[in-house]
Amino acid sequence: MHSLMPTIDDASDVPVYMQLYVYIKDRIGAGQLKPGEKLPSVRLLASLLGRSRTPVALAYDQLVAEGYAVSRPRSGLFVADITAHLPEVGQPAGTGQTPPLSSRPQLADNRALPPRAYHAADAAEADYDFGYGAVDLSQFPHGRWRKLVGDCFLPENGRTLLYGDYQGDAGLREEIAAYLLHARGVRCSPAQIVVGAGTYHSLDLLLQLLRPRLGEIAAEEAVNDGVKSLLLQAGVPVKPIRLAPDGIRIEELRATSAQAVYVTPSHQFPYGMTTSIAKRMQLLAWAKAQDAYIIENDYDGEFRYGGKPIPSLQGLDSAGRVIYLGTFSKALFPSLRLSYLVLPLELLADFRAMDHSYDQLASPIFQSALRQFMRAGDFERYIRRMRIVYGRKQDAMLTAVREELGERAEVIGQGSGLHLLLRDRDGRSEEQLVAAAKSARVLVYPTSIYALAPELAAPGTVLLGYGGIPIERVGPGICRLAEAWGR
């Protein structure tokens, strides 16, 4: 264990826990720390380094979150096998012990979807709304944003009021590329970015772009309901792939003939798990071997509490097989309607060759304001502030659930994002839970609408968002919910 002795640079701007995390991660990746090898305890490594336990614990938490290490109760922390079950390049789909497609879940013929349920349309509908679609605007710099938008109407900025570049404002794309490299580990040039008018708009454009290449598309078993609508309208068969605690089941994906797969690896929606590094490498190997694409939706990747946000899958891709999809709806506010695609070079050429029926994809005014907001550093400062705000809200919700519901409800998906799932242990259905809460003027939301196949829907499970509810109302809201569910 004494061989694990990183050099910590106290003069560096990089936090100690991040230096330690990178050191251990790199040694695992290089094979210098072998699978199954036990890492020193937090106490021992802190003592060897002459540091407090906090940075060591944070580094270990990050390694576990990304799948580089596994924790075994009462035994300690061990190096994970990040290359386990990697297929040989060129391995045909369907090898291994995966059940045949005919025995796995298929999409229902009825493609009608219920109205989207993100949050109440009217505050009078409930006393406590745990909707997922709302965000906290109490910390938003309204005055600064108002000035940036107003500047677009100055005479010298008149071009902002005309039609814009259909790929997006060049300056904004530069800012997005720089931010993504720093914050999400995405490697791209501004030329690879296409700015869109919201996630669904960008995904719709992408599916149009991919359609000539697709005979079949795979997706995680549960997805955002808007994404579900678009997949069902894509004009090709959609194969739902079941989820494991560390992400999508690769063996099921290999059994398909899909030319693309839709995933949310940093924070699965709605179940909240993170795809492990081993699964990420298997996913990339599959895409390379099958000449397929991975659509990575990083819808709220900035918001992880207790450690560094999980790096993107795109940053690990060396073969140009990952298409990265991001949005500013959760980071700023939903009505901004600004999103972006990062296209591999091959698809970028196809995008530019498309017959476009538009002059721009998103408002040049908002693009200009956001460009200035990012260039001045306001965006990253705001993200740091909101990570603290949302982290405190999640802590408040977890504490209230533990105190008010105890063992009656299982919490799913904590640690990141802007929502949690609660699974009822008393055997009640989703419909009963939602209806009982509503009768007490508390809004919680169904999860069955996210399942690609009805039999994949989690029983007795509801979604609670905490982004838009004031922190002082979280506890009372959960107390009311517990009463409605018969505390």
TrEMBL record:
InterPro entries: Aminotransferase_I/II_large, HTH_trans_reg/aminotransferase, PyrdxlP-dep_Trfase, PyrdxlP-dep_Trfase_major, Tscrpt_reg_HTH_GntR, WH-like_DNA-bd_sf, WH_DNA-bd_sf
Region entry Disordered, spans: 89-109
Biased segments, Polar residues type: 94-105
Keywords: Aminotransferase, DNA-binding, Pyridoxal phosphate, Transcription, Transcription regulation, Transferase
Cofactors demanded by this protein: pyridoxal 5'-phosphate
Domain HTH gntR-type: 14-82
Pfam family, one: GntR
CDD domains: AAT_like (cd00609), WHTH_GntR (cd07377)
Record bears the keyword Thylakoid: no
GO molecular function: transaminase activity
SMART domains listed in its UniProt record: HTH_GNTR (SM00345)
Family of this protein: In the C-terminal section; belongs to the class-I pyridoxal-phosphate-dependent aminotransferase family.
Name used for this protein in its record: PLP-dependent aminotransferase family protein
